[in-house]
Write a structure and sequence with these properties.
CATH topology: Rossmann fold
Shape: globular
Strand order of the largest sheet: 6-7-8-3-9-10
Helix content: 25-40%
Number of helices: 10
Largest sheet: 6 strands, mixed
Order of helices and strands: EEEHEEHEHHHHEHEHEEHH
CATH class: Alpha Beta
Strand content: 25-35%
Number of domains: 1
Number of strands: 10
Structural class: alpha/beta
Oligomer: single chain
Radius of gyration: 17 Å
Length: 230
């Protein structure tokens, strides 16, 4: 579904990414992990066409999207749950969900209500009248309403209470069951190892480790201690 090869990007004179390779197959849950400041958000920005690619290639479902605009990438099947939620504060929950909805897939209002019953209870509330956890559910639901083929979750559980965090993680299995691939950007290796298929670890703009979930669980090389723990 996604192939990134030799990706280079940066801001002004500062280069941040140095030849990043990353793949997400159909129906896979893949994670991208690393400490803060290692380039994870820069990868998201280049993937969605918000930051120019300086070198390398981005393919979405076999199509070269390296120079494509953000709208073309969304049309090709990318859906983003952004860091910081970024819900529309002056729209109701229901209006947030339908504002960018796209037909032709499994995700509808009723499907999102089923996934997050709390959102249905608060469907008339404005975006800024929700708790942080409810806003995160709304951000996930809004991405699903575009009926994406690849869902990218950028720090989706940052700052949330443990129970809400578990609720967000538990919904990923349902999303995969509906046919979407998932790329999760996070730091919580223990939580991610419960449901992911493969992992990438980023350090100073380069992939320094990649492996199957079983490899991370074994962690024979001390990956978590070397690259993820503060």
């Amino acid at each position: 579904m996604l192939r990134i090869e030799g990706l280079e990007a940066g801001y002004g004179a500062a280069q941040v990414l140095f030849g990043v390779d990353l793949q997400v197959g159909a129906g896979e849950v893949v994670t991208l992990m690393g400490r803060n400041g290692m380039g994870k958000t820069t990868i998201v920005s280049t993937l969605f066409g918000l930051l120019p690619v300086r070198g390398g290639r981005i393919e979405i479902d076999g199509q070269d999207m390296t120079r494509a605009g953000a709208h073309a990438r969304a049309r090709a099947g990318l859906g983003l749950v952004p860091e910081g939620r970024q819900v529309f504060p002056n729209l109701s929950v229901e209006e947030n969900l339908v504002a960018t909805a796209r037909r032709g897939g499994p995700w509808s209002l009723e499907a999102v209500w089923t996934l997050f019953p709390r959102l249905k209870e608060r469907r008339r509330n404005m975006g800024d009248q929700l708790s942080g956890g409810e806003q995160q559910m709304l951000a996930v639901g809004r991405a699903l309403m575009t009926n994406p083929r690849l869902v990218v979750l950028d720090e989706a559980t940052e700052g949330l209470a443990p129970l809400i965090r578990e609720e967000i993680w538990s919904c990923l299995g349902r999303i995969r069951d509906e046919g979407a691939s998932i790329l999760v950007i996070d730091k919580n290796a223990d939580a991610l190892s419960r449901f992911a298929d493969r992992h990438y670890v980023l350090e100073k703009g380069q992939v320094v480790w990649t492996g199957l979930n079983a490899d991370l669980l074994a962690d024979a090389g001390g990956v978590k201690e070397r690259y993820l723990h503060v």
